[in-house]
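QA checklist item 7 of 12: single-chain prediction sanity check.
[x] sequence parsed
[x] length recorded as 638
[x] structure emitted
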Amino acid sequence: MLKLAVVFTDNMVLQQTAVLPVWGTTSPGMLVTVRFAGQVKTVKADVNGDWRVTLEPLVASAIPQEMNITVNDPDQTAITLRNILIGEVWVCSGQSNMEFRVSQTKNSDKETSEANFPGIRLLTIPKLVAETPQKYIAANSWAVCTPETVSFFSAVGYFFGRELHRKLGVPVGLINASWGGTVAEAWTSKNTLLEIPELAELVTKYDMDVANSAEIIAEYKVAIRQMEQKTADIRNEGFQRGWADIPNPPGDWSSMELPGSWQNRGLDFSGVLWFRKEIELPASWQGKELRLAIGATDKGDVTYFNNVQVGSITMDDRQDSWCFRRTYAIPANLVKTGKNVIAVRVHSDKYDGGMIGPAEAMHLSCPALPESPSIPLTGVWKYAVENNYGKIVIPAIPPGPDNPNSPSVLFNGMISPLIPFAIRGAIWYQGESNADRAVQYRTLFPSMIQDWRTQWHQGEFPFMFVQLANFRTEATIPVESEWAELREAQTMTLRLPNTGMATAIDIGEALDIHPQNKQDVGLRLALNALAKTYLQQIAYSGPMFRNMTKTGNTLTIHFDHVNGGLKCRGEKLCGFAIAGADRKFVWADAKISGDSVVVSSQSVSEPEFVRYAWADNPACNLYNSADLPAVPFRTDIV
């Protein structure tokens, strides 16, 4: 049977000005003919049935075209692919901040409603772990970018591609191959890991663990069963107690500002919480059907209006229940003038839980009266705890082919099937899961990039990546930081040719490892691509440490990428720390002097070292005239 590789479907984009491999499988010895854009290429399938042709380079075109693939066997149906464009193709990969969907971003309703771009095409690769490199996997199809299709696509990928599409004026194809919580070695081929002694231990340790995994797997299964029993949602006790009813309910009720997870509001446990909000409805709404939008509830919800259930979505209903925005219809017979009660029962068996919004997705409206303003549902809600499971620790998945953090398994299952599809380059957002091994990442990350380039046989194609955003509690004194060290390893990777880095040190969120502002992330990646790949004369990086000079008790920091001048956002510069030979850092007084920054401290008479933005979540405010933030650095590198 004639079959194509996963990347060949209707609506695809082919890379302009590049040779274009097209491949698949059929019966051994069959002649396969590919016809596209006036070219006709024929090849004989090998003994395994594999075949591949190479089309000559083509210029960008937004005119839809068809590709026809036939085989000289009347029993095998020809394949015709339609609505194909020629333009720029980028792979979007990494962990959860790359997987993070457009529907989860800030202003997502506006972003999705405006996402009508026939010239942008989206392909998401199915999640797959594999012990060996795969050639053919289950396929999704390329989709034309519309409000419906973009909602579930990588936000960073989309905002990056949208900027390229607008600035270049050519079709853009985006291939999303990402998986939350994964490590870089899972995206690197086994051969590359084994070739580097520092990384080979990742493979040898894995092999040893797998060889002795029977007992670990048995213990894991027991732990999972115990966890599932502990967190099972088997009763709805709050409803029996009248917690959804209009009168003041019994029980211990407190106040919570929403949206937000209850862990971020100081409740460090999983379980079941009820949320109640009393609202006053205008007389004109009485007896009319309403639309209740409560945003996303992490993870499952049962939602009531005036003590009647009007909706429910759980993780059993859909895997993205934890971030899916709920909108429920309120029957007209439940709607009355005056006081009404919305009650939401949220069950979360692991990680965070709560009504997480975003704010713009939380409101009550009357469709029959579009001129009547909707009622916002953000702000203070009452809450009560129905069930407290305690802090749930998820048992680690044992080593083996089912664990997406095993060495090479995601390269094998999600990257290998794309090769050698012609691409312009790749964007990458990952590193959180490797932050505890930052020194190793100095070798691992560039090795992964070189590995992909070697496998693709397209030379040193562009590879743009995101430096980790600020996260966790803001530092009040100079501290050591694994996240800062990981950012440093990412900066070091710029030594590789044709790489670029988008700094995100100013657009993270202290309480959320998945910041909603993916627009600026995608934009800053696009600036790197536009400048470095498409050679546009634009600023693409914030100030970057070049060198340091010492004069008396001051140190002067000189920067590259000043781009018209340095500036401070705020009354005075912050984020600089200074130390003498003892490496005991204290906050420094810092002042801009031309294209440099002069730092000093009365408590350090003989300064030797400087750090900037060196913390998980640093307070830092140095920018260039292009409003791009300075890249974190330290001069005491070890």
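[x] summary fact logged: Residues 274 and 392 are 19 Å apart (CA to CA).
[ ] second reviewer sign-off
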